[in-house]
Amino acid sequence: MKFFVALLLSLLLISTPTIARSVNGSSLQKVDKRNSDPRHFGFECGSRKYKLSTCIDVVKDACEAHSNVRKPKNIVLNYTMAKHPMEFIRAQEFGYPNNTMIVELPLSLFEILNLNYVAFSPMDCKILGVVSKNEDWFYTTSFKACRHTSWPFNWLEK
């Protein structure tokens, strides 16, 4: 009787990894894993990617700076005044309203010149898109729209 109990326990221990492996390798788990990884959402301008949360923060600060500039009795200067919004004169080329404003996106560590801007509506501080400015040798300026994108977290962010 002890022999059969020992044999049954040893068979159970040997077969447990095989059963567990077949459960983990089932096709149902592969379907669930297909699009479940966490992702960033934002805009891509060339090789530079901007998170949507960064764009929202920049627009919020620009709206505060824009409202402070419009109120002449409020002369308190803060860090948002440094990045005040500018009128976007080429808004109609992108299908944006005439009163669209743009503000610079933050520089990365190794960037010297920033040519990427968030376009937003100053009335409701709604993001309309991100545009990239191109200047050539003859100092003619053109803008192009950056595209919406998503990308996975890197190994430091997980």
Automatic annotation (TrEMBL):
Residues 1-20 form the signal peptide. Keywords: Signal. This is BgTH12-01009. It comes from Blumeria graminis f. sp. triticale. The lineage of its organism: Eukaryota, Fungi, Dikarya, Ascomycota, Pezizomycotina.
